[in-house]
Amino acid sequence: MSKLGGEKKSVQEPIIQYVQEPSAEYAAQNGDGVFLKLGWKYVNPDEALRLRGGETGMVFREIFVSQLQKLNSDFADHLMAEDIIKKIETVPATIEGNFTVWEYLKGLKTVFVPSEKRERNITLLDTRNIDRNTFHVTDEFRFTNGKRTIRQDIVFLINGIPLLFIETKAATKVEGMSEALEQVKRYHRDCPELLAVLQAYAITHISKYYYSGTWNTSEKLLFNWKEEAGGNFEQLVKTFFDRERIVKLIADFILFTRQDDELKKVVLRPHQMNAINKIVERAQDPAKHRGLVWHTQGSGKTYTMIVAAQKIIQNPLFENPTVIMLVDRNELESQLFANITALGIGNVEVTESKEHLRELLSRDRRGLIVTMIHKFEGIRANVNTRKNIFVLVDEAHRTTGGKLGNYLMGAIPNATYVGFTGTPIDKTQYGEGTFITFGKDDPPHGYLDKYSIAESIADGTTVPLYYTLAPNELRVEKEVLEKEFLDLKEAEGMSDVEELNKVLERAVTLKNMLKNRERVEKVAQYVANHFLNTVEPMGYKAFLVGVDREACALYKQEMDKYLPTDYSQVVYSPFYNDPEELAKYHLPDIEEKRIRKAFRKPNELPKILIVTEKLLTGFDAPILYCMYLDKPMRDHVLLQAIARVNRPYEDEEGRKKVSGFVLDFVGIFDNLEKALAFDSQDIAGIVRDVEELKKRFKEEMEKARKNYLTIIGGKKQDKAVEALLNYFLEEEIRNEYYRFFKELSTVYEIISPDAFLRNYLDDYETLSRMYQILRENYDRGIDINKDFTRKTIELVKKHTKSGEIQPTIDIFEINEKTLEKIEKSKASDIEKVFNLIKSIERTVAQEGDTAPYLKSIAEKAEMLAKLFQVRQKTTRETLEELKKIIEEIVTAKKEQVEKNMTSEIFSIYWILDRSGFENATSMANEMEKVFEEYPHWQKSNKHGLKIRQKLYEVLVHSGITDSKKISETAQQIMKLLSVKI
């Protein structure tokens, strides 16, 4: 069999080769040359095992001790280094332990120095002089905690500490990346002790390269590594493992924060890293003092701001600067800023009042100041005229307009200002406003850095959005909407919800239409039905956005008629003089926090939040899928609101949210050009009509009827299955169908239920069953219920007795009568092949741990299945050989009973007997004593070597002289009795 595309030769070994090269150079898209420094030193697995002190060790001890003393030469000694190794290797096997190791790497931990009688910060990683660190790479990194053993493909160590690993898969595997991620999840489950030390990981199979932080194993937290130069696999690897970049990744671009009392780990994406680097460069430029960063909603602006602030503060070039972060109330009150010191940023002040801000600026406070724009109101001019003040402004399109912006810039006139926005510059702002304030140093488009909507969707940072218009009778009159809202000059460039509310207060007719009691009742009933039939079956939640607080209260009353009362909850700001019908929905702060927290969780209530202003910005709930929009909006406000449903989400079973959905009861999306006054290139793909998906579904179903349904057309059940298995015998053809069906089922999930689907349901169900049969037989071990989308599962379950084709491959209990049943079966030969393969697999899964010899027999069946699938064995040849394997299993079980041996000793006997040793029984008894003498041989490298040596002696005493056979037999026995890797 060809090794082309094999994991080790085509992926693993090239990575190790690339990172060992001393340096590399490439041209960025702007034409600049980029120099990379690599030079990772390779350590083979045996030497790595020695440096670790065995399979239970993690750190390269000699290297760590040497480096610790070098980086802390004025106080560190050998004893201190050994003590820190012990602390690192015994941190809690949780994300909390991972946080502790990160604190060591950041230089945030202290040690007591007896000679000085004081605590000193300890340095494990030199982040300024990169070349003072050592960089090592090793492969086949085998680790055991005594209960489980894992083997990681490639591990990277800095100063002897394992910090990053790569899981590689063959390029030919269509599910390669998913398999790699499953491996990563298993490492966390089986050996969390090692994962508590490792800080990051990558998975790759040449065509794709993704990275993430350890303890983040959801697919939505896997980030596509992209370089500005694009490039091939070699270039991706080299740019990622540039020494300075890796140190920055560990030291600068990993953060820990607490949300809802839970510690979370954040790793920045490439677009965030690029923006931070540009911000720091702009801060150093004496000729430019403005910058505008447009990173689309949901792409992590706040973390970008925090790390940029940290980098500026810690950079000695800026001579102990002040960084001011301007955020809105939602951000300031978030848990992120409540725990900002946990992010590794010291010297932080969160202002409590206008007076507090003025006092900080007047007394020349250095470090980070977090505040809001309104606290600059009335501040005197020239409060602080230093040049090393840097202001990072969130939501720049609405924060610095008008008087408040003038107060800000008058108070600190020589500062550098960088604005952040989640929406692009609208057409009304070119040459004025936000453009002039922040974009004037970056003509012609005004952006220091840009991460567009299209880029965000392509990277999986956000999901695409689809909309549909509610029925005509539920929407407001188009003429009124245009006259009182869309055509108003003062509504153009709408950037703030408060602005929006002022405009809507004057739209009397429009608001009356929206709050008409009869209409509210009909809309509520429509929303309830849509949620129950479309959104809830997907496992997601929804927002209902009313035009004002009164509308929210009205909707709650009506929704309770059609849904359980605890399904929905009103969340709006309370006023002290509210009438009873509004006051009854007031929430204490603690209750609102509880509701927000519960809403984010799949199995907790509420499922629908009824809002009008609150939570439309700054509230992230990835489980939020659908927005029922009944409030006129446009421009920045509309983009910010619908972005609530664009966050990626993955449920506990691994199903991913593939899109967000907006159901428009106003009619805003009937005229997108008026509603979104932005350049078309900036908002391309922001939201699409669901009718596009219906058209796509129709086209794909027509392809399916022509290319796939004809395979089984006109055939009865048994012949249909036979035809299906034969047609898709080649992996490439199967993979093509898998990709087709995955895309088709994604579209079905979004548009179902819909009358449009009526003419396609039977055929779609048949395609689903075809997919199920192929996956269960050719890709054994998968859980088809997790592989299907939720609505497809329900469709298949409802029609289990109907349809042209059923998954009826039998599984037999393996005993003396199995072959007789096979002979009598009316199934085709190819069905019998899969019958026996699945029967063998189930037997080994159920009995393999107590009868290890079954695993060695099963390996033959596995190899045979692979040869069959690549057509190196015919169906008939495969069937006959599988029958022999069945006979072997039956014989082995019978012989074990006759010999009255334990399963372990019989497994040794079985290998020896099948290898041709005449005195297999006595040799097996001798070997049993060897294993009894060293019961912990899997945990101790020393004992493992002893076992191997003793097995060699038994084999040599038997009279065998072939050294290769001795080695292979000993290895086979040890592998069979070892913990399964």
Q: Quick gist of this model?
A:
The protein has 981 residues and is α/β, with parallel strands linked by helices. 47% of the residues lie in helices and 14% in strands. It contains 42 helices and 27 strands.
SSE blueprint and pairings:
Blueprint: H1 7-20, E1 23-27, E2 33-37, E3 41-43, H2 45-52, H3 61-71, H4 78-89, H5 95-106, E4 110-113, E5 118-121, E6 135-144, E7 149-158, E8 161-168, H6 176-190, H7 192-195, E9 200-204, E10 209-213, E11 223-224, H8 233-240, H9 243-251, E12 254-259, E13 262-267, H10 270-284, E14 290-295, H11 301-314, E15 322-326, H12 329-332, H13 335-338, E16 348-350, H14 354-362, E17 367-371, E18 389-393, H15 396-399, H16 402-411, E19 416-421, H17 433-439, E20 449-451, H18 453-459, E21 465-469, H19 478-486, H20 497-506, H21 508-514, H22 517-535, E22 541-545, H23 549-559, E23 568-570, H24 580-583, H25 589-599, E24 608-611, E25 624-629, H26 635-642, E26 660-664, H27 672-675, E27 688-689, H28 690-707, H29 709-712, H30 717-727, H31 731-751, H32 761-778, H33 784-787, H34 790-798, H35 818-824, H36 829-847, H37 853-869, H38 875-899, H39 903-914, H40 920-933, H41 941-957, H42 963-977
Parallel strand pairs: 3-6, 8-9, 14-19, 14-20, 15-17, 15-18, 16-17, 18-19, 21-26, 21-27, 22-24, 22-25, 23-24, 25-26
Antiparallel strand pairs: 1-2, 4-5, 6-7, 7-8, 9-10, 10-11, 12-13
Helix pairs in contact: 3-4, 10-11, 22-23, 28-31, 31-32, 36-37, 36-38, 37-38, 39-40, 39-42, 40-41, 41-42
